[in-house]
Each structure stands twice: as C-alpha cells, then as structure tokens.
Q: What sequence folds into this?
C-alpha cells in the first residue's frame, strides 16, 4: 500500500471554514443578480472579518446570497443587492440579525432545503471553489485516498454495488459502463460530458463553478478504475465562469500532484486533464457527436455500434460520463457503496440533482433522494406556482423529456417512473408551467429548439422537426385544421422511431406528451381559434374597457400606432392593425385593457 | 486577406499555437474571441496552418452557433431563449429590444456599438428572463430594467 | 448457432425464409443477395455506411421485441427476424419520401435526371400520393460556375454520397456540408461556385448523386445549334469507353458493345464524320512509350505518370505542383485527336479549320474542362458525355436499338486492341507495355495480356522484366489512391518507374459522364471492362505501334515519333494551379 502523504498537508482549510467570515455566492446566477457588486461593497467596508466568495447555494430565487458567520453563529441572508449591504453591515456592527433579509440560521431552517438531501451539492455555496484546502477540509480527496488503496476492479465493483446510474439522461449503470472499458488494453480516454445544453438545466454548471475539485477528484478515481491517462472535460463556451474555474482548479490540482504524473506518489498513475469547449451545438451532448466535436469535426452523431468503449476518440476506447455522475464517485468511495445504495428508490439509487425553474415561487438547483414525489418538490421545495395561478404541468428532462400533468404529480422522481409516462429524467431540468402557460406554445417552443439544434444529418430529424414546428406554428396562429392533429401524431411517431440519434428520437416527446395529456388545448386552438391561457399572440385580443381614463399612455407605447382616442376619452384599438405585442396592456396603469 | 498588417501579425501569433485537425474548434474560438467574428482571410490562413481544406473549416464554423461571420458590436447582447426564459416572456423582451435598438436579432446597430442575437439557454434559468451582454449575465429582466441597462452602455 | 453445414454463419429469418449468412455482412446486402431490393439513398457499396437517409429501414424482431432499424448498417444476429416490407416499414419509407418531397424542387419533367432519379423512382414505387407537408422549402441559387458540373441544391436530399466520394474516395474535398439542421447545404467554402474550388471535374459526385442535384453541365443545345448551322462541318470523335456503356442509356445490358450503332446514331444526328479516339489512343501510346524509354535510359523524371485523365492532371497541378516533372508530356487521346482534326484532317480534306465544329463524345465531365485549357484553344469545341449523347439520340427520336451498324470514318477511324482498352483501369499501362516491350527488345511479342494490372483493385502493382531491366509498375484509380502514390514520390520512397493514374473508379468506364449504375455498382463496371477486353481480343492488331493508320500519319504528316511536329501537336505542359 502506498502511503497517501501529500493529502495530509492539505488539511489546514478547516479553520477557514469555521472562523468568522462573510461569504457571498458568486456563481453565474449570483453575478446575474449583482452579487459581484455586493461582494465589492463588503470589501470596501473594511471589516475585521474574512470576506470570501463561494459558489452557489442553489436557492437562486434569493440571489445575491450572503452568509455571515459571527461569533460562531451563522445567518443566511437573501436578496442582498449592493444597496442592501449597509443593512447587513449595521447588523454585524450591532451583532444582531437583519430581519428584512434573513433567510435562516442554517439551511435546514429554510423551507427550500427542508426535504433536500445535499450530498453532491454539499459544498456548493459553502466553500471557496478554488481553495483546495477548504475542499479537503470538507472531506475532499478522502474518496481518492480510499480508492487508491483498492484495486481498480474493486472500485468498479463498488460503483456497481452503489447502484449509481448515469445522470446524463439514459440512466445506464455507471459500473457496467466502466467494466466494459476497463477490460480494454492500451490507451483509453475518459471524457466528462459537461455539455449541459438542456434549457432549464444548470446543475452541471453549478458543480463546475461551485465545487470543481469534486469533479476533478471523481474523474481521477474513474481514470484509475478504468485505466485511462487522458481526461477531457467537454463543456460549453456559454459557461465562461465554469470554464475559468475549472481551468484554475486543474492548475491547482496539478501543483498539488493530484493530477499529472505519478499522482500522489503512486508510480505509474498518470492522469492529465484538459478542457475542450463546445461551440454551441446541443447535439454535442450526444456522445458520438461529442467525440466528433472533440476531434475538431462537425458535431454530428454516428450510429452505434461501434460504441465509444470500443472505438471512441481517434479510435481509442473512450468512456463518457456526465458531470454529476462523476462527481458522485468520490462520495461513494468516501461513504461506502452500501451507504449510498441505501438512499433512493429500488432501481434508482442515491440522490437526484434537479433544477427548478418556470412558474414557481422558488427557483434553483436542488438535491433530493431518488423517488421523492414530484408534488413534494414542486409544492414543498419550490413553493408551488405564483399566487393567483394554478399548476398545470411540469416539463421533465428538457426538450427530450415530456410534460407531466397534475394527474401524475405523485409519481416519484426516478428513471423508470418518468419513462412510464413518456417523460424522462433527462438531465434533471424541471420547468413548471402554470395556468398562464399554453401547452401548444410550450410544445412549439421545444420544437423550435430541437429544430434549430438538429444537426441535419438524418432525414427524419432534419425535415421532420421543421414540419412538426410548422404545424404547431400554424395551430398557434389560429390556422390549424382538425387533420393537423393526426399528422402531428403520425409524424412525431415517425421521427421518434426513425431518427439516427437520441436527439431526433426524443425530439417529439414534448409533442406526444402534450397531445396525450392536453388534447383539449390543441382542440380549442384549432376549433375555436382561441388560446385558453391567452399566451398565443395571434389568438389574443386586446380591448380597452370602461376603466380607460384616456391618459394616452397606451397609444404612446403602441409600436404600430393603432390606438386612437382623444385625451381623457376612452381609447380604441384598431384590431386590423394591432400586432398583439401587449405593450398597451403592460403599460396601462388603470387595468383598462382586457386580454383575451 | 486581412487588410491590416497588425491584424495579420496577431492572427499569425494565434495560429501558431494550433497544428492539428482537432484544434479547429479551439482555433476558431480564439480567432472569434480576438476579432469578435471570423474573417474569411483568417480562415484561409487557418486552413493552411492545419493543412485542411478550407471547406472543412467553413463546414465546422457554420455548424456551431457560437461562430459569427459578421463583426459584433462593442456590446453584444445575447437574449436567452431557453425554456424558463420563454415561459417568462423572453420573446416579448426580445421584441422590445429589437424595437428599442431598431435592429433585428443577428444584426448590429449602424454605429457598430450594439449587436443583438438570440441564444439557447445560458443556464440562468432561475433568474429568467435573462440576457448576457458580452460575458456578463443580467437576470430577472423586464422592459424597464432592460432600458436602464442599455442606457448605461457607454 | 452455426451448424455443421454452415460453419461461421448465423441463421436469420428474412421475410419468412431461413437464411444463413455471414455475421459480418449487412442486412441490406444479404437481402439483395436474396433478391430483395431495399430502397436507399445514402448507402453505396463503395462508400462508408453512414445510415443517415433512414430509407432502408426494416422491421427487426429479436427476443420478442420489434424495432424499426436501418438495414445498411445492421449486421445479422442468430435468430434475428427481419421483415423488409411490413406495413410499418412501408409507412416509414413513405413518410421519409414525403418529407424529402416537401423540401424538393418538384419540376421533375424538366430535370436533367428525369426518369433516372431515385427520389422519383421510390416515390412511384411507394405510391406516395402527395406530401401532406407544406411550408419552408430550400431555395438557393443554382451553381453553374463549373464547366463540367451543375449543382442544384434545391434538388439535394443531403444523402452525403457526393461528399464521401469527393472527400473520402477522391480526397479532393471541394464540397462539404455547411450550416446545420434544416439549413444544411452541400457546398463549397463560403458557398462559392464549384468552378473556383478545388473540384477537379471528375464527376464522381454526379455518378453518386441519386437525384438531380448534381448533373453534368449540358452542352446539348450548343451541339444542336452547330448541327443545324449549314456553314459548319460537325465532326465527332468517340472515346474508347463510350461503346461499352452507351447501350445502357437505351436499356441494354451493361457490357453490350454498341460501336456500330453508336457511329450510325451519330451519322443520323448529322455528324459529317465520326472518328475514333481509339486511334488517338494509339498515337498517345507511341509517343508515351518513346518518352518512357527516353526517361528510362536517361534515368530522368521517373516514375513517369500517364496523363490521359484531365481530372488527375488538375489534381496534380493543384496538390502536387512540385512533382509535375513526373507527368508525361503526352496529350490525352482526346486532345491529340482534336489537334489532328483541326490540322492534319483539315489540310487533307481541304477544309477551313474555322468551319469545323468538333464534338467530343467522352465518358467524362472533366473533358469539358480539358478543352477549355488555354493550350488547347481552338481545337475541340464541345464535349458531350455518354449520358448527354444518349439524351440527344432520344431527343432526335432515333430508334437506337434497331440501327444498322456503321463504321468509323477514315483517315482517323482505324484502331487497335491497345487503343480499345484505354477505357478501363490498367488499359493505358497495358497498351504502353505492349509497345515498350517490342521496342526495347526489338521483337514482336505474342504474349501481351498483362493480367497483373487488370482487375478492380485501386492499386495494382507489377514488375516486368524487359531487356534485362526490372521495371516496376503501378496502376491506380481513384484520386485518393493517386494521392498516396504522389506522397511517396514527394517523400522519395516511390519504387515505381511507370505509373498509370485514372481519377475515376474503374477508369473511364466508370467516368463521371457515364450512365450511373443504379445498383450492383461493381458488377456493372466489371461488365463494361469485359466489353473492352473482348474488343481487344477480337482485334486483328493489338499493338498501337502496329496500327497502319498511325504509321501512315507519321509518314505523311507528323514526321518522327517525338519529333518537332509531333511535339507541337501531341504534347503539352502543366503548371501549378491555385484554387480557393
């Protein structure tokens, strides 16, 4: 057994975590809410406290988020924009709590976190992502240390025993995947698929930005287990902060002999890690397309077999795992496969990292045990749809997934359950739709996405997605005919069964699930030329009612000048000219414009 | 061919870092990062550098949406058209910005200051609707907020 | 499990019949061998299987589970049940065609590929009534910048065969997919014309294209104008391979030799004289053999490479401009005949060369480019491909099948078996060897069938012992194979003395202007080759230097072989060529 000496030197970070300090969440979502200015404001205040940036706690709805640890007790604050920093500074000075912005003492006190089980996300928003000491202080690299005491084969057995399945969507058992490549000889390549292209999914970004060492550690263990010396993290150019963070983290890991040659002094254990940036192609999340992209080609998929494990990048056996999948590996090593397998449902082990967005009160990235019912997530964690509206559906798994209506809300979140109703786990994006959302429009939106992301290689996807989109577009414009429904169904089924890769095969899912669960909405669009949720622009009419004071504000905002009326008299919209942009509706201060 | 001698030197200094076919995307990214868009002459030099047919380079460059063949403005606004943003009316916001700047997505203002495009999900779903200006993300937008942000662009 | 009668085979059920098959074969080919034709676009025997058109789907049942799968990339498994035309399969193919038709320029009757288009054919076979899809349709300008090939992307179904042909087989890489999704286009860099690209005009893409997206650029209207011009004397020359392929345009079996009917048809069309390019081929050999012997004796500029193929010449000028000294300076038979008609024949027949309109009937789209080379200005006027000649004959309502055979005209109509075999890969080399051997040893050899350089392998090597010398030969076809050889020359590792290069697979019988075999590509090509070999065998004279017409020509007009006049009329030069 080789002594793991280098790690011992890293443990000093613990102090940094327990000492008094102020942390500001500075991941992409935080920055978009102004957290960078918040941090600057704290720094300018010359406090005798350590001020540090951390990653994302996941409660994006409350960004910017600041945690103050003072005299050993913690307070978590939300919505701390630059202008509110002073309030917190005042509280620090008086050693009190700023009630206005206070979320809770600990995460467990906050509703958003109550039923969560944070394993993968445990460090996110708590440690400085690029401080390796802090990472080690929270148990980081414990997994690698344990793994390196085992034989590669034993690690694979552990991963198998843990029941870990691919978090990228298909849910293939990770241990089995590793087993297939481990038996190959010669050069092998390990790829982390961080091409998180699903709209509504950003858990990979969260991990890469907030806890990059976890991913790097996971990849190092995987490399050791399958016998690879070359690793690639393929991620999106649209994630500049994640790329920057990972680059720095890789350099730091290298300088600590945690990457590179003879890692941790183990003779012959070499693993070099580099980043390859995608350039804007959703299809590159598909593994054969990803490999083409890595090789500098058009990111078009190739049929399987050959599978990447047989013939991958430059013909070398290649193993591709998702960011979350790889990041779970250190946890499995460290807590033990048995403990991990205790979490979750029968066939889906561990936790599910999900992103909550759309028409709900609390958005963000969450982690719950597999098998948690959707209802608990949407109404418990996310707080349900905004006041005055009702829940309509949740789109699971992005453009490849399907819509799940109220009827199925008690369904547990796991691979099999979601598949059973035509939806899928996908990468774990949950987009909640409420009574304001039109399901035909949502279906059309997804089709417009897959259509623009179709690589163009195979006929069904290239031509079919465009035709499906065109039919949906017609319907949302009030030009649909009853026959369109049949055409939609048969064409969707055709594209699903005949496309070359997963993108095309899954592209019709949103259409098929909405057609099955919301047939009425389609029918109303076609037969009555109306949009029940008033969201299809061409089917919405704006009319000025009796509340109009004749202020003229609507007329001034109308881009096509189709609102007329004398000052202080009721105005009228010329329906033949109106482009239904809604500017009048948005700008009326008297609730005098009806939308319907 | 690039008109500017300094440009040419810069291109050369970039290109010499790349030598293999697999570098195509990375080289294109650096060229675009440096010049804001991909210029024909630069691509011809890249083809020579990588010993690849030019048609391969353009085939790759036109495949990925990141690559642009017309210059970007000093400020490049990317309106997110991801799902979460869509259900929060990003289309209306887009129309608003288009009206305000008097350009369509994919175009640039006459003074070359601001260019506009639609992008797929930028991952700021929880802050929907969102947009990026250059690399900075702005979230929870509404028309007023966008107006303020655009006005603040120097 | 493999049974004793069928070792190493697997058993599948193909449309209710038990079939034992090679586990490494593909279902589409297994079906074909069992007389089931599965429609397809992207699949081509000689190209990489990409399974992107999704037309060749079949229904598969393994372990009780039914699935729709493409048959071109599917290997059989023990116990697999394959059904090639269940209602579900037919419906899937129908929707596929409907989707393609919805994005296709449907001016079929006026399309160059009318009645030869696979999309049209399958649409008929699958009884597609109308496409239920309306909406956006590709609408891009037609590319007519190339003298050889017309590119109409509005008829492209993106099967990708042209790209594989141009890139993988020919390594020319003139075209590639650009953009993506519904906007995907097969095009040159920056959407520019083929005429400005690295395209060498070989037309292999035209042969590969299942629709009217890639066709020869037609010269038929010009030829008709010339034929109707009373002030012009219109003369035709026909390349060696045309007689072995033209019959296919009229439904005849591949490999039918139609020399006599071809000449008769040309006469009926109004051509005043019909000369045989085979004779010019004999002259090429005489000049080339003499050039080779000179180089061999001086040990200079070896290996020498044949230059009958204009696509290969452009390829060399573009990509191997530093190695042009290896190329024979001999003109192609086409260019030799053209110069002789406008000089020797004009003089002999007392005609003003300006009045002569020379129409070359060629297997080749690149010949349309070759006649535009400034060195050849004023010689040949138009090139019609085999396919174009077939169309012209039909347009003029000639009943080709029942024509009485006619003979080539003199003085440029007499040829040898050596000239005949120019039309297939290895033929030029074989013809040259017959002359080189006779000359070097000053004998009249009887065994002149060089089997080692026959056949369809893209690289054929042989070593011959002549006059105490060991001469290493290589015969290659397809430009990808040529590129490998040229890289060897460039790196100084080439062991050959004499090389034949033809751009098209199979040589001219597989040229870009030939009728495209709809299936069993290799078989069709082999039959065409056989037609030429048979012609050679039946010729009284089978060596170029024994052609009395050739010898008469040198005596009367050209002077010495390789002499001054011969050089002026029969040789040419090459230069570096830039491309976009």
A:
């Amino acid at each position: 057994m080789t002594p793991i000496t280098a790690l011992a030197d890293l443990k000093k970070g613990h102090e940094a975590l327990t000492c008094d300090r102020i942390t500001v969440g500075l991941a992409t979502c935080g920055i978009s809410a102004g957290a960078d200015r918040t941090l600057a404001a704290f720094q300018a205040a010359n406090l005798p406290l350590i001020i540090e940036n951390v990653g994302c706690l996941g409660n994006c709805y409350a960004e910017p988020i600041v945690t103050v640890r003072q005299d050993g007790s913690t307070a978590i604050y939300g919505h701390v924009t630059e202008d509110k920093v002073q309030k917190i500074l005042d509280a620090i000075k008086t050693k009190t709590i700023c009630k206005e912005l206070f979320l809770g003492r600990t995460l467990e006190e906050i509703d958003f976190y109550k039923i969560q089980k944070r394993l993968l996300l445990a460090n996110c928003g708590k440690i400085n992502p690029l401080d390796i000491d802090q990472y080690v202080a929270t148990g980081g690299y414990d997994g690698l240390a344990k793994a390196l005491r085992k034989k590669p084969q034993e690690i694979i057995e552990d991963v198998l025993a843990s029941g870990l399945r691919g978090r990228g969507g298909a849910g293939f058992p990770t241990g089995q995947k590793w087993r297939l490549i481990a038996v190959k000889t010669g050069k092998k390549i390990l790829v982390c698929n961080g091409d998180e292209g699903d709209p509504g999914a950003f858990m990979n970004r969260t991990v890469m930005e907030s806890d990059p060492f976890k991913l790097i550690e996971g990849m190092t263990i995987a490399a050791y287990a399958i016998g690879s010396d070359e690793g690639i993290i393929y991620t999106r150019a649209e994630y500049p902060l994640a790329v920057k963070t990972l680059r720095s983290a890789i350099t730091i890991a290298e300088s600590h002999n945690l990457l590179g040659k003879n890692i941790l002094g183990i003779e012959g254990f070499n693993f070099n890690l580099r980043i390859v940036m995608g350039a804007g192609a959703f299809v590159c999340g598909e593994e054969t397309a990803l490999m083409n992209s890595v090789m500098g080609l058009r990111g078009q998929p190739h049929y399987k077999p050959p599978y990447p494990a047989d013939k991958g990048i430059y013909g070398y056996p290649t193993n591709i795992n998702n960011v979350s999948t790889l990041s779970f590996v250190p946890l499995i090593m460290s807590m033990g496969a048995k403990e991990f397998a205790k979490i979750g449902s029968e066939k889906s082990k561990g936790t599910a990292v999900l992103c909550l967005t759309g028409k709900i009160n609390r958005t963000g990235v969450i982690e719950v045990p597999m098998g948690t019912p959707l209802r608990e997530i949407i109404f418990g964690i996310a707080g349900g749809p905004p006041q005055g509206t009702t829940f309509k559906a949740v789109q699971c798994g992005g453009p490849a997934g399907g819509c799940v209506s109220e009827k199925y809300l008690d369904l547990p979140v796991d691979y099999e359950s979601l598949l059973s109703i035509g939806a899928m786990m996908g990468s774990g994006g949950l987009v909640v739709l409420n009574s304001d959302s039109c399901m035909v429009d949502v279906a059309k939106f997804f089709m417009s996405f897959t259509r623009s992301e179709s690589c163009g290689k195979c006929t069904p996807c290239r031509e079919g997605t465009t035709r499906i989109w065109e039919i949906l577009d017609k319907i949302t414009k009030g030009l649909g005919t009853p026959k369109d429904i049949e055409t939609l169904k048969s064409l969707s089924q055709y594209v699903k069964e005949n496309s070359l890769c997963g993108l095309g095969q899954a592209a019709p899912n949103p259409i098929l699930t909405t057609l099955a669960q919301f047939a009425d909405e389609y029918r109303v669009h076609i037969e009555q030329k109306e949009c029940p949720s008033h969201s299809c622009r061409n089917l919405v009419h704006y009319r000025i009612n009796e509340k109009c004071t004749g202020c003229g504000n609507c007329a001034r905002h109308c881009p096509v000048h189709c609102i007329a009326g004398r000052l202080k008299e009721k105005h009228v919209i010329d329906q033949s000219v109106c482009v239904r942009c809604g500017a009048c509706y948005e700008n009326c201060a008297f609730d005098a414009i009806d939308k319907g | 061919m690039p008109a500017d001698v300094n440009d040419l030197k810069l291109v050369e200094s970039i290109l010499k870092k790349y030598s293999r076919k697999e570098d195509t995307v990375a080289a294109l990214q650096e060229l675009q990062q440096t010049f804001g868009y991909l210029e024909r002459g630069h691509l011809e030099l890249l083809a020579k550098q990588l010993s690849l047919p030019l048609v391969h380079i353009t085939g790759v460059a036109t495949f990925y949406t990141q690559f642009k063949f017309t210059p970007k403005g000093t400020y490049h606004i990317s309106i997110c058209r991801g799902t979460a943003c869509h259900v929060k009316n990003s289309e209306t916001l887009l129309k608003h910005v288009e009206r305000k700047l008097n350009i369509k997505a994919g175009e640039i203002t006459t003074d070359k200051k601001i260019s506009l495009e639609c992008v797929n999900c930028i991952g700021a779903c929880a802050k929907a609707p969102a947009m990026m200006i250059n690399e900075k993300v702005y979230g929870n937008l509404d028309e007023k907020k966008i107006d303020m942000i655009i006005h603040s662009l120097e | 499990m493999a049974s004793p009668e069928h070792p190493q085979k697997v058993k599948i059920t193909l449309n209710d019949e038990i079939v034992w098959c090679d586990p490494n074969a593909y279902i589409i080919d297994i079906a074909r061998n069992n007389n089931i034709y599965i429609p397809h676009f992207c699949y081509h025997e000689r190209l990489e299987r990409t399974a992107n058109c999704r037309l060749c789907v079949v229904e598969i049942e393994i372990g009780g589970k039914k699935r729709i799968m493409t048959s071109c990339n599917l290997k059989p498994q023990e116990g697999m049940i394959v059904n090639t035309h269940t209602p579900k399969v037919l419906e899937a193919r129908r929707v596929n065609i409907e989707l393609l038709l919805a994005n296709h320029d449907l001016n079929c009757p006026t399309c160059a590929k009318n009645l030869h288009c696979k999309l049209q054919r399958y649409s008929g076979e699958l009884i597609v009534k109308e496409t239920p899809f309306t909406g956006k349709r590709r609408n891009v300008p037609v590319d007519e910048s190339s003298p050889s090939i017309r590119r109409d992307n509005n008829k492209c179904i993106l099967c990708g065969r042209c790209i594989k042909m141009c890139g993988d087989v020919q390594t020319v890489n003139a075209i590639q997919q650009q953009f993506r999704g519904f906007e995907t286009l097969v095009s040159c860099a920056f959407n520019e014309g083929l005429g400005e690209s690295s395209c060498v005009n070989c037309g292999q893409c035209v042969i590969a294209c299942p629709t009217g997206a890639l066709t020869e650029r037609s010269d038929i209207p010009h030829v008709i104008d010339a034929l109707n011009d009373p002030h012009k004397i219109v003369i035709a020359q026909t390349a060696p391979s045309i007689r072995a392929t033209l019959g296919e345009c009229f439904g005849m079996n591949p490999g039918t030799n139609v020399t006599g009917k071809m000449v008769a048809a040309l006469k009926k069309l109004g051509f005043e004289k019909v000369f045989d390019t085979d004779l010019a081929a004999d002259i090429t050999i005489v000049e080339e053999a003499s050039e080779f012997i000179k180089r061999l004796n001086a040990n200079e500029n070896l290996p020498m490479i044949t230059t009958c193929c204009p696509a290969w010449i452009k390829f060399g000028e573009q990509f191997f401009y530093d190695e042009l000294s290896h190329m024979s300076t001999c003109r192609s038979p086409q260019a030799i005949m053209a110069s002789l008609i406008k000089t020797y024949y004009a003089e002999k027949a007392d005609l003003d060369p300006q009045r002569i309109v020379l129409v070359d009937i060629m297997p080749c789209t690149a010949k349309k480019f070759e006649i535009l080379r400034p060195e050849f200005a004023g010689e040949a006027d138009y090139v019609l491909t085999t396919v174009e000649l077939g169309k012209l004959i039909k347009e003029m309502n000639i009943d080709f099948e029942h024509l009485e055979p006619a003979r080539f005209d003199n003085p440029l109509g007499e040829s040898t078996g050596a000239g005949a075999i120019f039309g297939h890969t290895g033929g030029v080399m074989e013809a040259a060897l017959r002359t080189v051997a006779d000359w070097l040893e000053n004998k009249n050899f009887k065994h002149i069938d060089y089997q080692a350089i026959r056949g369809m392998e893209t690289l054929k090597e042989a070593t011959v012992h002549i006059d105490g010398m060991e001469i290493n030969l290589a015969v290659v076809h397809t430009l990808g194979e040529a590129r490998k050889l040229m890289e060897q020359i460039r790196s100084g590792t080439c062991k050959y003395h004499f090389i034949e290069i033809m751009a098209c697979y199979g040589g001219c019988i597989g040229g870009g202007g030939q009728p495209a075999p709809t299936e069993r590509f290799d078989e069709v090509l082999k039959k065409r080759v056989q037609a030429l070999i048979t012609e050679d065998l039946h010729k009284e004279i089978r060596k170029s230097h024994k052609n009395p017409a050739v010898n008469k020509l040198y005596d009367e007009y050209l002077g010495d072989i390789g002499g001054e006049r011969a050089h002026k009329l029969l040789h040419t030069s090459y230069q570096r060529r830039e491309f976009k």
